């Protein structure tokens, strides 16, 4: 018995020592951006920090709590010279971080007054395989949209740098949320990508659909009145916001028809129930013929 116990315990202690060593390395907060609806963006730098799209880190702020570590998805791209997270103020710890960064004050906060931050990571997720496919479906539900901020930024950097060698040719992006207010910063990112793609005459590279699942009768009426306007009244995007939930069977069949004989990566960051639905659709819409269309499902649950 002791042989089976000592081995895993030794590996666990080694892993804890490595994580402790990484968490002691100096992290510098270069910028704090306040977004609407009490969401802040922390842009940071750390010597030797290397990341891939969709990864996450653990963050500790000793000024708030000397023991608490909290996971946050990285919202920056590997091509950027900093790494960033978006933090929504929803509890005691995030409120403490908000105040420690001086976001509750009106005057400009000096960099040397910003709190010390400890960072452990990054840690990998399924989203890292996005660039292995020519066609991908990205599905983000609620806060699960944050990994795709990193993905979409990185795709854009790679596209601008060398579009001919980029294997990824088509992105279908689905964003499901009760309301867009909490993630207004992400709508701003989509607006920027939309404008830049149109400037390059390749608006078809990214197809996206935003579904508001927490709609009521007044919202539906407002939607119907303004549907003919050039831009959506909720997000400011050319793509109109949809109400309710997607018909996944129709979505999969449509995409399969447009990309026959392809391997299509399906990436989800969302709840387990939605994962089960997408997994079943990926299996049922994949052909038995090896030369036919195949949906490869990847998930990250929270």
Separation of the first and last Cα atoms: 35 Å
Instruction: Give me the strand/helix succession.
Output: HEEEEEHEEHEHEHEHEHE
Gyration radius, in Å: 21 Å
What share of the residues does DSSP label as strand, in percent? 25-35%
Write a concise keyword list for the protein shown above.
single chain; 302 residues; alpha/beta; Elongation Factor Tu (Ef-tu), domain 3; Rossmann fold; 2 domains; six-stranded parallel beta sheet; three-stranded antiparallel beta sheet; 7 helices; 32% helix; transmembrane helix; membrane
Q: Would you write up a description of this structure?
A:
By secondary structure, the chain is α/β, with parallel strands linked by helices. It folds into two domains: 22-121, Translation factors (Elongation Factor Tu (Ef-tu), domain 3); 126-297, Nucleotide-binding domain of ferredoxin-NADP reductase (FNR) module (Rossmann fold). The chain has helices spanning 2-23, 92-100, 146-162, 184-199, 217-225, 248-258, 272-284; strands spanning 27-35, 39-46, 56-60, 70-73, 83-88, 118-123, 135-141, 170-177, 206-212, 242-243, 263-270, 294-301. Strands 10-9-8-7-11-12 form a six-stranded parallel beta sheet, sandwiched between helices. Strand 1 and strand 2 form a beta hairpin. It starts with a helix and ends with a strand. The mean pLDDT is 80.
């Amino acid at each position: 018995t002791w042989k089976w116990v000592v081995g895993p315990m030794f590996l666990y202690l080694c892993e804890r020592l490595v994580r402790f060593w990484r968490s002691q390395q100096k992290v510098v907060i270069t910028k704090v951006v306040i977004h609407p609806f009490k969401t802040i963006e922390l842009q940071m730098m750390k010597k030797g920090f290397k990341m891939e799209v969709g990864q996450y880190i653990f963050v500790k702020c000793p000024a708030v709590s000397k023991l608490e570590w909290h996971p946050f998805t990285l919202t920056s791209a590997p091509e950027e010279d900093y790494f960033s997270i978006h933090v929504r103020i929803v509890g005691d710890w995030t409120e403490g971080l908000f105040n420690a960064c001086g976001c509750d004050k009106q005057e400009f906060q000096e960099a040397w007054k910003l709190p010390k931050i400890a960072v452990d990571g990054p840690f990998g997720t399924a989203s890292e395989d996005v660039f292995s496919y020519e066609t991908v479906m990205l599905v983000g539900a609620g806060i699960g949209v944050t990994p795709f901020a990193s993905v979409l930024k990185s795709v854009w950097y790679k596209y601008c740098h060398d579009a001919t060698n980029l294997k990824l040719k088509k992105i279908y992006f689905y964003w499901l949320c009760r309301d867009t207010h909490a993630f207004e910063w992400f709508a701003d990112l989509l607006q920027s990508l939309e404008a830049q793609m149109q400037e390059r005459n390749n608006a078809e590279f990214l197809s996206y659909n935003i579904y508001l699942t927490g709609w009521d009768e007044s919202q539906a009426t407002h939607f119907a009145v303004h549907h003919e306007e050039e831009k959506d009244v909720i997000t400011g995007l050319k793509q109109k916001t949809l109400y309710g939930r997607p018909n996944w069977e129709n979505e999969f069949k449509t995409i399969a028809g447009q990309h026959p004989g392809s391997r299509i990566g399906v990436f989800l960051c969302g709840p387990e129930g939605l994962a089960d639905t997408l997994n079943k659709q990926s299996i049922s819409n994949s052909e038995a013929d090896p030369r036919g269309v195949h949906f490869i499902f990847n998930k990250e649950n929270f």
